[in-house]
Amino acid sequence: MVFLRKKLVNGKPYWYIVESARVDGKVKTIFQVYLGSAEKILEMKRQCESLPYDKLRSFDYGKLAALLHVNEELGFTDIVNKHTDKKLIDGLSVGEYLLLDVIGKSHGVLSENGIEEWFKKSPLAFMWKFPHKLNCQNFLNQMNYVDLETMKKIEDDLCRVLVGKGFTPSIMFVDESNWFTYANNYDDESELLHKGYNKKHRKDKNQICVSLAVNEDNIPFIHETYSGNVHDSEEFSGIVDKIINRLTELNICSEDLVLVFDKGNNSKVNIEKVTSKMNFVGSVKANQAEKLLDVPLSKYECLYKNSKGNKIFGYRTKHQFYGTEYTTVITYNEGTYKLQKSTYETNKSRIIDSLEDLRRRLESSKGKERNRSSVEREVAGIILKKYSSVIKYEIIDALEGKKKPQLKFWIDEDNEKKCEKTFGKNILFTDKHKWQTKKIVKTYNSKNLVEDDFKLLNDHLLVPVGPVYHHKDENIRVHVFLAMVGLLFYRYLAWETKMYGFSMKKLIEKLSEIKIAVVQEKESKKSKIIVEEMDTKQASLFSFLNMEKYLPF
């Protein structure tokens, strides 16, 4: 929905064009253009009247052209067509269908059902001509050409292109996430669709899980889609195998690679598997080295300041984990300490208030009868799992003549002190014994690269994985694969334009504001396409990415 919005600044009205849309169930502003005062708008109208043409229609062009540019840089459609055996017929190739799917999703089309409608309103409608419709079934037909083996071959070739451009990985960051789906799994016929711990708290839905490995330039190299009921640490072994196989295909020695992962992937088997082929930097749970948390902060050294201006401290030692001694660094961030302390106190207060309310209701003779199990369920819903060792409780069976059990609760002060010792701290371990402490810590903290990628994969205007509407495993895998291709396109684009100093969000904003218009000359009545007004940075991006090349006329 597009409308005019008036804002008062120092008592004077100024006007904006605003576009809103429903995001996660809430109406949010997704686009805003400043027009100016009423006098400025009137002047613009007079200037338009003096132009030699009339505007007929305007199209978003910048993001579309940038993605077409990256497609050519990486040779994506050619690679797909090379590995898919499709009969030569008029119309789009498999590679062009998949590219169109990637571009459509990056413009907010959340399923293949909506691509045709979006296509008709995009510049592609007069750039690409073909005899058939872009219905959902056609897209599903193209997906059938891309099985697991074909996806691997496509990814191998894309990685060869990346290595040829200088993206040989020396560090890989691995993380996992999950997305709920709208598909049911009847009689366990699906390998992927299962219920599990969902990050959006949709326990009622089946989910899929995805692991992702990116290099130090935040370029995605490997992904794996796996069952929704498999724990991350179980899948980790599989992604390690895929990394080793991919590096072998690229003639890169895995022994030169450092793998970075979080504590959720730890197990004796996993650590041994990693160290047999490569090096690593990881973290462990606080209870695996509690004594190290007692080291006074006076023994920590200041290593560096992070991007938020917080000082990062570290204490280096040796410690045994999983039967082997590793170089160990305990880090401390005062900013994180304050945040975690505040969060803890807020949650603790909320939990205590809720338990007090429950106890009061149980002591009251009013209300319906309660049994022990119903109280147990309510208490479990109040006390967060992470605080169950600190906030203890006891349910006492109802006394004779009473219809409700009683509740006692208290704070375990010893466990609370243990909990507070962990605030602001992280325990890292590595087999890179010769690395400086600062490098170990900075390398691990760069793990937020892959965490940021998962945020992009949740952005409905970039490369969304969810919502997932597919029911068949093979289609789900292709759906995730295309989201990863979209992520690769954006990360490559960010790397290519890094000299502009834009964040990913700002880069996409700048590109999204580049528009083209179909205009009609007032005298000859002939139509042509022009590029609308751009600022200097947008004009520079337009030239640098050779966007003019994709204009239809």
Task: Give a verbal description of the structure.
The chain has 553 residues and is of the alpha+beta class. Among the domains are: 1-49, no CATH class; 52-145 and 471-552, no CATH class; 284-434, no CATH class. It is 39% helix and 24% strand. The chain contains 17 helices and 17 strands. The chain has helices spanning 38-50, 62-74, 76-83, 94-106, 115-120, 136-143, 148-164, 232-249, 268-277, 334-363, 372-382, 413-421, 437-445, 448-456, 473-496, 504-512, 536-544; strands at residues 2-9, 12-23, 26-36, 53-60, 171-180, 207-215, 220-227, 258-260, 279-284, 301-305, 311-321, 324-333, 391-396, 406-411, 425-430, 515-521, 527-531. It has a 9-stranded mixed β-sheet, with helices on both faces. It has a 3-stranded antiparallel β-sheet with strand order 1-2-3. Strand 2 (12-23) and strand 3 form a beta hairpin. Helix 4 (94-106) packs across helix 15. The longest helix has 30 residues, at 334-363. The chain is globular. The relative contact order is 0.13. The model has no long low-confidence stretch (mean pLDDT 88).
Give a brief description:
By secondary structure, the chain is an alpha+beta fold. The chain has 17 helices and 17 strands.
Helix content: 25-40%
**Strand percent estimate:** 15-25%
Assembly classification: single chain
Global Rg: 28 Å
Question: Strand tally, please?
Answer: 17
List low-confidence stretches.
none
The main pleated sheet reads as: 9 strands, mixed
Distance between the termini: 30 Å
Structure annotation, total helices? 17
What's the rounded overall pLDDT mean?
88
